[in-house]
Amino acid sequence: MNDSTAARWPRPYWRQPGENVLLQFYVFGGFARDLAIPAGRYDSRGLPEGVELKRFQNAVLRDWEGYPLAGALGEVLREESPEVYEAARRAPEVLVIRGELADPDSLDYLRDTLGVIAGLLDVGGGAVLDPQILSLFAAEDWRQRYLVPGGAPPRNHVLILRREEEDAAGRSRINTRGMRKFGRPDLDLRYVPDTALDRAGALCEQLVELMMLGADFVDGQRLEVEGLATALAVQRGIDEAEFGHAYVALRWP
Questions:
Q1: Type and span of the H or E element at 189
Q2: Which helix (H) or strand (E) holds 190?
Q3: How far is Cα of residue 129 from the mean position of the Cα atoms in its chain?
């Protein structure tokens, strides 16, 4: 597809590159030997430079130590979507889309990649795994979530988790997974009172959208939040065990 015919997905708050974007998806199904992907019908120019598609027999990939339907992730996926999980496990093939690219000033790379996935679902794909948000989708569920004119809402691209703070009764920790798809750190809101969960959840969604559209935060920056007397201080860090990359911590007053 010619670049001029594709609808642009701008990032109006982008000023300079953040960390590299990481894309990783698995498409389970059965595909023709000569794979022709009708990505153009979804406004896609094909996979962006630095992102590759590799084809595997599912039975062979199961022997790989990082096979996503095994281990802790596999248990989560099986509990969340047992029927989709079983269909993916039985699929004859897996197409792995993976790669990194320098953080760009538009989301065209995401539009193009989602278009390739949509095309794969038209030619034999039955399920899509996004390991960055710990989610496995049946083909139709994926289409409804992501094939939205102008792009799916930012909330659809990330996972927002809540759990109780271990050392503070009545307070919760809210964090995200999936922001590396936008070259941005995941969010980690700490010590949120139970009475403020709705407000904190809305703030998290607002920040996700800003960052997806290019905004970023520096260590020590202070964020004014409506309704809070004290600004939230940004603390940046890297936690491979928890997030797998960078994070932004905000401690609720």
A1: strand 186-193
A2: strand 186-193
A3: 10
Mean pLDDT of the chain: 94
Q: Distance between CA 232 and CA 188 in Å, rounded?
A: 12
pLDDT tens digits along 38-69: 999 999 999 999 999 999 999 999 999 999 99
Residue tagged 């995941």 (tokens): 186
- Specify the long-range contacts of residues 241-246, CB closer than 8 Å, at least 24 apart: 242/175, 242/188, 243/175, 243/177, 243/185, 243/186, 243/188, 244/180, 245/19, 245/22, 245/180, 245/185, 245/186, 246/19, 246/185, 246/186
3-state secondary structure of 217: coil
Place of tokens 């997974």: 177
Residues 78-126 pLDDT 10s:
999 999 999 999 999 999 999 999 999 999 999 999 999 999 999 999 9
pLDDT (tens digit, 9 = 90+) per residue, 170-180? Answer: 999 999 999 99
| Beta carbons within 8 Å of 243's beta carbon, 6+ residues apart | 175, 177, 185, 186, 188
In the chain, count H helices and then E strands.
6, 11
